[in-house]
Design goal:
This protein is of the alpha+beta class. It has helices at about 10-30, 35-50, 125-135, 135-155, 175-190, 205-245, 255-270, and strands at about 10, 55, 60-65, 70-75, 80, 90-95, 95-100, 105, 115-125, 195-205.
């Protein structure tokens, strides 16, 4: 069902018409006679019935107008209006709202248990769909948000320990948020709801594997740091030997080069301060 505009006109004009009916009822009733009394009763009845058609609409609110079970339209423009008397009018908020999901425990694509939560920013754009196509659109948004969040969490890994590429939940929050928003918008279109933003607010390994994953991350970081240190140390040793040879400070054969390289690598790579050893004799 698609939303359409309900029939209505200015409520202040409606008040004047109702007052006119009451005045006519008084005039006809004062004239006496059967015709006058009948006319007065008719005008009085029309005036009383017309009173039920007044409705105040506040900004970013809508009223779904139904008449004996039939959808007549929606009042969305703010102001004071007069619409179909005896109609049932249900309020639907068009304001932007936030919904924060609970922390869900799910498995990522690698099977690791993780905790995840998100905040959803949405508003109603089609009051007819929100009112008639789903039972309770607010509850519908909550349930579908959790389903979409579980789906996204199970589609991507929490993190990757190598350079395989691809999106991860931790390293690509903007891309994951965009995918979550698209998935959720597809699910909520039936309820006339527009998803303005969907973003992760909580992401962590579950308690039972958090310590093990932390150790794994630390080990990976240590290996990466060691590789960088060794790479820099090799460059420094190469530069030192080339400088000594180019300036003719000392003549180094292959054995002396090996000994010097060993001493320099130990001094540069070691985490502790190097202890110098003074050689008082010959290397041979």
């Amino acid at each position: 069902m698609q939303e359409r505009k309900a029939w209505a006109f200015n409520g202040f004009v409606g008040i004047l018409l109702v007052l006119l009916l009451f005045v006519m009822a008084g005039v006809l009733g004062s004239n006496g006679g059967t015709g006058g009394i009948v006319g007065a009763l008719v005008c009085l009845l029309l005036g009383i019935v017309s009173i039920t058609g007044f409705q105040i609409v506040q900004p970013n609110q809508g009223y779904v107008v139904m008449f004996f079970g039939r959808y007549l339209g929606t009042l969305r423009q703010d102001g004071f209006w007069w619409t179909v008397p005896f109609s049932l009018r249900k309020k639907v908020s068009m304001r932007v709202r936030n919904f924060h999901t609970s922390q869900l425990k799910v498995n990522d694509v690698d099977g690791n248990p993780i905790e995840i939560a998100a905040v959803i920013v949405f508003n109603v754009v089609d009051s007819a769909k929100a009112m008639f196509d789903v039972d309770n659109y607010e509850r519908f948004v909550e349930i579908q948000s959790e389903i979409a969040l579980r789906h996204i969490a199970s589609y991507y890994p929490y993190d990757t320990m190598d350079d395989q590429g691809g999106y991860t939940l931790r390293a690509n929050p903007d891309e994951i948020a965009e995918q979550l928003q698209l998935d959720l918008q597809h699910r909520l279109a039936i309820a006339g709801v527009k998803v303005m933003e969907a973003r992760l607010t909580h992401l962590a390994y579950s308690a039972e594997i958090a310590h093990a994953m932390l150790q794994r991350q630390q080990a990976t970081a240590i290996l990466a740091a060691r590789a960088k240190i060794v790479e820099g140390a090799v460059g420094m040793v190469q530069m030192a030997i080339e400088k000594l040879q180019s300036e003719g400070v000392v003549e180094l054969d292959e054995e002396r080069k090996a000994s010097m390289i060993n001493n320099l690598m130990v001094a540069i790579v070691s985490e502790r301060s190097a202890q110098p050893v003074v050689n008082a004799g010959s290397l041979y």
